[in-house]
Amino acid sequence: MFKSRLKMLEMLRKWKEYGDRIAEAASQVLGECEVFAFGSVVEGRATGGSDVDILVVSRNLPQGDRSHLKALIEERAGLPPFHPFEIHLVTPQEAEWYRRHGGTFVRLWPLGESDGGSVDVSRLRDGDKVR
Fold it and tell me: pLDDT (tens digit, 9 = 90+) per residue, 39-58?
């Protein structure tokens, strides 16, 4: 148990590296998508029990249960069975909930966008796309 806890802490410290792997895996599984990291780790407020929230926004998601897609993304990203990443798979319409609740989002995918990698969704207006 001690080794697995150390591995989880190491993954938290390297959240960006693992986040990039998750983003690439999400793109392979879903095709066109946008991927962001958000929450306490991104904002520098992490505690020992923190997880890393990953938001995957895609039009290519089925209605209902998406757990099989999460499992496939985790597998393709090479994540171990126990890890500190909470993957949120949402459509652009469902992403509105995250937009309304504000916070800082760090873009992981697609790469090279002009926003410098960080989006404050609290600044977006209704109807704007979460990017």
Answer: 999 999 988 788 999 999 99
Task: Tell me the pTM.
Answer: 0.83
Q: What is the identity of the amino acid at 79?
A: L
In angstroms, what is the C-alpha Rg of the chain?
14
What is the DSSP secondary-structure string of 69-108? HHHHHHHHTT--SS-SEEEEEE-TTTHHHHHHT--EEEEE
Per the CB < 8 A criterion, the answer to whether 57 and 87 are in contact is: no
| Integer Cα distance of 23 and 112 in angstroms | 13
Domains and CATH numbers, the chain: 2-123 (3.30.460.10)
Whole-angstrom distance, CA of residue 27 vs CA of residue 33? 6
Q: Which two tokens stand for residue 54?
A: 């990953």
* Cα–Cα distance for residue pair 96/22, rounded to 1 Å: 22
